[in-house]
Amino acid sequence: MTPAHFSFSSAFILGLMGLAFHRTHLLSALLCLEGMMLSLFIALALWALQFEATGFSTAPMLLLAFSACEASTGLALLVATVRTHGTNRLQSLNLLQC
């Protein structure tokens, strides 16, 4: 495993572990998701450059576009949650009360 593969896979695993174990605030969950998407984007871009696949070179940009959409949706949900519940703590959210 090259050092680049190790760094991107460890960044993804750290983001996944942060998402799984530190679920106190919605903002920290969104930051972990963004870290995972950033590591996927960089790994996908380097993979496309390494194999010189011209047909595959648009995939990182498509992933980046979906990541931006995910980030904007997450921030909109964060603002809506803070306005309705007064906090962004995930323990205060109850789906049965909706």
Gist?
The chain has 98 residues and is mainly alpha-helical.
Structural summary, described in words:
The chain has helices at 3-21, 26-51, 59-85. Helix content is 73%, strand content 0%. The protein has a domain at 25-87: Helix Hairpins (Orthogonal Bundle). The chain is mostly helical and 98 residues long. It is elongated, with a radius of gyration of 17 Å. The longest helix is centred in the last third of the chain and has 27 residues, at 59-85. It contains three helices and no strands. Pfam families: Oxidored_q2. It comes from Acrossocheilus parallens.
Which properties best describe this structure?
Helix Hairpins; 98 residues; mitochondrion; NADH dehydrogenase (ubiquinone) activity; 3 helices; mainly alpha; NUOK/Mnh_C1-like
Overall CATH class of the domain at 25-87: Mainly Alpha
The largest β sheet comes out as: none
Q: Count the E strands.
A: 0
Strand percentage lies at under 5%
Class per helix and strand makeup: mainly alpha
Question: How much helical structure, as a percent, in the residues?
Answer: over 70%
Indicate the CATH architecture of the domain at 25-87.
Orthogonal Bundle
What is the overall silhouette?
Answer: elongated
C-alpha-based Rg, rounded: 17 Å
What letter string, H or E per element, gives the SSE order? HHH
Instruction: Point out poorly predicted stretches.
Output: none
The total count of helices amounts to 3
CATH topology call of the domain at 25-87: Helix Hairpins
Mean pLDDT: 86
* Distance linking N and C termini: 48 Å
GO molecular function: NADH dehydrogenase (ubiquinone) activity; oxidoreductase activity, acting on NAD(P)H
Keywords: Electron transport, Membrane, Mitochondrion, Mitochondrion inner membrane, NAD, Respiratory chain, Translocase, Transmembrane, Transmembrane helix, Transport, Ubiquinone
Catalytic activity: a ubiquinone + NADH + 5 H(+)(in) = a ubiquinol + NAD(+) + 4 H(+)(out)
EC number: 7.1.1.2
